[in-house]
Amino acid sequence: MSKKLIVFGNGLGRALDNDYFNLESAMKHIWESDWLKPEEKALIATLDGFDALNGPSGEEDLISAYGAQLSINLLKSCLEKGQLEGWMTSEGQSFSKVLEKYTYAVAYYFHLFKPDEQQQKSGLNSVAHL
Q1: Count of other CB atoms within 10 angstroms of residue 30
Q2: How far lies 23's CA from each of 3, 26, 29, 84, in Å?
Q3: What is the pLDDT of residue 117?
Q4: How many CB atoms lie within 10 A of CB 44?
C-alpha cells in the first residue's frame, strides 16, 4: 500500500493568504486576544525588549524569552527535585508554561485558517487531486 506525504511549509501558507500566514500577524493577533491572561502577558512583558501593550512582534523579540526559558531549565537541572521554590518565585517558575502557552496559541492560529470562496473554487484548500 502506497502512502502520500503532504509537506506544508510557510511558502504554501503564504501562497494561500500572505497576510494571514505572516508570523508577525499571528503573534499580534494572539497578544490582542484573550488567549493569555493579563498576568501572563505581564510576565512575558518583563523580558528585555518587550512592550506589554503590543507584545512580541517577531522571532527576534523572542530571543530573551528563549534565554530565560533555557536559564530556568538549566537551574532546574542543577537542583534537587522540589528545591526550585527556594531559588525562584512561583511567578518565575510558571514562565516556561506561559511561554509554551503563547507559542502554542500562535501555532494554533495558523490551523484556524479558513480559505475564502475563491480559494475553495480553485481547489487550493483541497488535497483530493494529489
Answers
A1: 22
A2: 31, 5, 10, 34
A3: 55
A4: 23
CA gap 82, 79 in Å, rounded:
8
pTM, rounded to two decimals? 0.77
Distance CA 77, CA 73 (A): 6
For residue 31, which of 22, 42, 20 has the smallest C-alpha distance? 42
Q: Per the structure block, which three cell numbers stand in for 5?
A: 506525504
Q: Cell match 488567549: residue?
A: 35
Sequence-separated contacts (24+) of 26-29 with Cβ below 8 Å = 26/106, 26/109, 26/110, 27/55, 27/56, 27/57, 27/58, 27/106, 28/54, 28/55, 28/57, 29/109
pLDDT at residue 56 greater than cutoff 80 = yes
Give the pLDDT band (50/70/90) at residue 128: very low
What distances in angstroms separate CA 6 from CA 21, 91, 130, one per listed residue? 18, 41, 9
CA distance 84 to 23: 34
Q: What is the pLDDT of residue 19?
A: 84
